[in-house]
Amino acid sequence: MPTNDLSKEELLNKIEELENENCLLKEGVTSFLTTGETVSVPEQFKPLFDVAQKTVGSYFQELKASPSKGTIEINDERYVLLRASALSIDFLNKIKDLYADKGEEQGYAIGRNFLFDIAHLIGMEDAKSFHKKMNLEDPIAKLSAGPVHFAYSGWAYVDILPESNPSPDENYFLKYNHPFSFEADSWIKKGVKSDFPVCIMNSGYSSGWCEESFGLSLTAVEITCRAKGDENCTFIMAPPHKIEGYLKEEDLWSDTEQVYEVPSFFERKNVEEKLKSSLHEKETLLKEIHHRVKNNLQIISSLLNLQSHFIKDEVTEKVFAETKTRIKTLALVHEKLYQSQDLKEIKLDEYIHSIVDLLTVSYFKPEKRVVIKVDCESLTRFDIDQATPLGLIINELVSNSFKHAFANQNKGEVLIQFRNNEGNCALLIEDNGQGLPEGFSIENSGSLGLEIVASLADQLGGTLSASSDGTTKIEVKFSINKL
What we know:
Elements: H1 8-26, E1 39-40, H2 46-59, E2 63-66, E3 71-74, E4 77-79, H3 89-98, H4 104-134, H5 139-152, E5 158-160, E6 174-177, H6 182-189, H7 200-214, E7 219-224, E8 234-238, H8 243-249, H9 267-308, H10 314-339, E9 345-347, H11 348-362, E10 369-375, E11 381-383, H12 384-405, E12 411-421, E13 424-431, H13 448-459, E14 463-469, E15 471-479
Parallel strand pairs: 1-5, 10-12
Antiparallel strand pairs: 2-3, 3-4, 5-6, 6-8, 7-8, 9-11, 12-13, 13-15, 14-15
Helix pairs in contact: 2-5, 3-4, 4-5, 4-7, 5-7, 9-10, 10-11, 10-12, 11-12, 12-13
């Protein structure tokens, strides 16, 4: 504006501004030169924003740069300068290249999430700092400092539109333009037209500042962008669950040419927390299922026990007893899983010892002393899909030793040995009893227990072999499932 168009008061203010600038220059201090408004707002908010412009403007009055020390200070607060494009087009393209295997769209999405999160957090922390410096309590007053600081620190000029309603509740709504957005400018200056709104950090910072000011969870969506060829970089800000409704009001949600992302602060963390919560619920449900299966198996075992009291036939009674131990062995798997922190695997040594304890009690006779030794230190955890058939095999073979190996002996020893050599496993059941009959073969044994063992070995995808040379050995070899 020509000087002859200025009023006397305006001329005096201009002279004072130049004198102050001259003093600062003599002292080696550079100041920000303010030649006009730093924010545009509806008339009802103007008085508060005028105060903010003066207060924040005075804060930026002093700038001390000392390259020899690598420092830039504004009002004794240290700042750093960054190239605008390094936080926009250059950054996004680099992230896109790093995640090329996921596709361009996914790569850009990862970059946008990162930029939004860091900008939102910076906005919150800057707001917290200025609220304290300026002793601000009223939410609108807290908000007013944001756009001014935004302009001084080089993000963008802010033009808050009349339809805005920054109320301190879920009806909070802000619609605004960011003329001269550093992000849009970085694309325009490189001569690149974007297919999507690029002012992600602008969205994050402004929503972070307002979230801190109002104590509300807020997000911002850029609905038009100069980098796309639109006239303005326009945003709407609201609580995340309300944004979709505002987009519909703008006739944008159904826009088939543009998908409007609704950014969420630390969205990845929120998704992870939801997944953890969902996983915990599933684990709790599975534990309850294992608990109930165990209880149901115990009920079946109890029913068999009650029914056996009415059996007079000794052979049938033995069959009932054997069936009960098989059921209890199955129940033990579910009991161990219920107690385990990992529902896909159990501690194999604990499981085998539990089976041994069960069989020792089931086949206890005062006149016989049978000692069972367990050696499975080479593997402490085991896949549940293989633990069940393995447990039943141990049950059948050790039961056979109790019933047949020591029929004519008052004492004996059974060894349960488990070996794992890089995934190749071997279960050995060995006893020092009376040995196997001459010409014995598992296939033609006529024993239900050994038929069950052979079937379970097939289920494991393994092989079954037997030998009797001083001691009786029955061995199952199979490959372990990878956990």
